[in-house]
Design brief:
single chain, about 170 residues, 7-stranded mixed β-sheet, 3 helices, DUF1643
């Protein structure tokens, strides 16, 4: 019989009022690659609880030989409308996380295309990523469509990461 053990370290970064969640960092093997995953909205996951999205992110990155994930969102507010200060702080957190990872995965999903505020925010983040010369990836289905959120049924259990082409960027 063989027993295996693992420890997952988790950090969550919030504003002082706990109204905005800027970052969740999960580490299960610090010797493996690190990824930054950018999604749309802050979910219910925290330093203890996991939501489905976070679970699928960790499971798929682990299969792809990653050992650390930084999860950020276009919109950090947990319960209410976002303040300008939180948008600025969110961008700062994203910039700091970019410097700590090998790959950045844009996983905002297809619904962003019809949300003008989300398109503006994504394009602002893409400008930072391009300026920092980040390795930008996205999730592709087996049938060649790309740009999906981790909960999309065709990619929940198996990610195929492909380069994010700037031409894939959503237009304002």
């Amino acid at each position: 019989m063989k027993t295996t053990k693992s420890t997952m370290k988790t950090e969550a970064t919030y504003d002082d009022e706990m109204r905005n969640k800027y970052l969740i960092r999960k580490e299960w093997d610090k010797n493996k690659r690190k990824a930054l995953v950018i999604m749309k909205n802050a979910g219910q996951a925290d330093e203890i609880m996991q939501d489905q999205t976070t679970m699928y992110v960790i499971n798929n990155l682990s299969k792809l030989e990653y050992g650390v994930v930084h999860i950020v969102n276009l919109f950090p507010s947990i319960e209410e409308d976002e303040a300008k200060e939180s948008a600025i702080e969110n961008l700062k957190c994203i910039q700091e996380a970019i410097a700590k990872v090998a790959d950045v995965i844009i996983a905002v999903g297809k619904g962003v295309e019809t949300n003008k505020k989300a398109v503006e925010r994504l394009n602002m983040i893409l400008a930072v990523l391009l300026d920092k010369k980040a390795n930008i990836l996205q999730i592709e289905t087996n049938y060649g469509r790309k740009g999906f959120h981790p909960l999309y049924p065709a990619v929940k259990h198996q990610w195929k990461l492909v380069p994010y082409e700037v031409s894939d960027k959503v237009n304002e």
